[in-house]
Amino acid sequence: MAVRLMVVDDHRLLAEALASALKLRGHRVLASAAPAAGAADLVIARAPEVCLLGTAAPAEPGAFDPVVKIKRERPQVAVVVLGPVPSPRGIAAAFAAGASGYVRHDERIEGVERALVKARAGEAAVAPQLLQEAFAELLHPAAQPDDEAQRLLSVLTPREVEVLVRVADGEDTRVIASGMRIAPSTARTHVQRVLMKLGVGSRLEAAALAARTGLLDRAGGHRTP
């Protein structure tokens, strides 16, 4: 069955080539465009079933901000990230932002198509090899214990660090929202993302992990004035 989709990539020529290839395979491509400040807004306005979102630097801060914005405004849109071979934690960051899948730039068009169909069906669209590599690193992390706090800081945005500090201080969602001047629903989303990125199931576990690794000491000063 044809997928109604949009293609957004750092390289316009690649976006147009992917769009053309998918059209030839019977899919309905609403638009193809290079990422820019308004890329997420374009996806939100057109509301495709799936957005194929390319990124050249998945490790860069804010790389998946468009995913967050799309999912916040159009939660029904499935986002599949197209990027270079990521670190396992890069995959985790993409999913933490709300992506439904991750496909390598060098994947064949058949593989891209399979990912789009799986994402539309509500399934996780990740190549088994990437999942195996992710599990291998998570089970046998390369980081040394002394580097754990810095590693954790590297996967959190500055705003998420502030949320973690406030959680560790015992603030509830209402107080966090008031202190950061954001809506309670936004504060709740930030807390959920922090828990997911840290790999813990509760605020208490997050606070304990932050204290044990020394993350709170390194995160000093992360407060909205």
What's the story with the biggest beta sheet?
6 strands, parallel
Question: In total, how many beta strands?
Answer: 6
Radius of gyration: 19 Å
User: What is the number of helices?
Assistant: 12
Strand percentage, roughly?
Answer: 5-15%
Helix content: 40-55%
Q: Spans with pLDDT under 50 lasting ≥5 residues?
A: none
Distance between the termini: 52 Å
Class from secondary-structure proportions: alpha/beta
Task: Give a description of the structure.
With 225 residues, this protein is of the alpha/beta class. It is built from twelve helices and six strands. β3 (50-54), α3 (65-73) and β4 form a beta-alpha-beta unit. α4 (88-96) crosses α6, α8 packs across α10 (184-198) and α8 (158-168) packs across α11 (203-213). It is elongated and about 55 Å long. The chain starts with a strand and ends in a 7-residue tail after the last helix.
